[in-house]
């Protein structure tokens, strides 16, 4: 049974999913029935950070136009852009082979942003049931889940979770931090 995380909670992946080799990170959401005159397009991205908490290079920013990490093993793969978010379950997903992530990558930051939010008059207050979950690729069992419960009425970007190295093991942090300024605000933070 999956462990349900609370905002700010950190857990060792070795303890909750012993032997985990590769993780499927699923992110999902539903859009409230509102009439902004525009469709919602939410996007998942991953920032691959070095020890200095900054992007290692432009190629270490994984999103719908750069689907794989730059390492030869392509240890991190974005599974593609979902333009509508329609349907149940995961709306976008990333596969992380934890065994192959290069040592220079100390942290993976998983974010969701609203495409053209300002121009479309949209924010995360119009989104509900947002979650991030970690599934063991081999066993297909969900190990961790974090459901956002706060109302982000002015935010257009969310840091959902982080997977990071500490004491030679991988850990996960349920972040749930909202930002105004969309994707650019996060790029400014991590560049």
TrEMBL record:
Q: Which residues form the TerD domain?
A: 1-190
Q: InterPro entries, alphabetically?
A: Stress/Tellurium_Resist, TerD
The record's annotation in PANTHER family points to: CAMP-BINDING PROTEIN 1-RELATED, GENERAL STRESS PROTEIN 16U
Sequence similarity: Belongs to the CAPAB/TerDEXZ family.
Q: What is this protein called?
A: TerD family protein
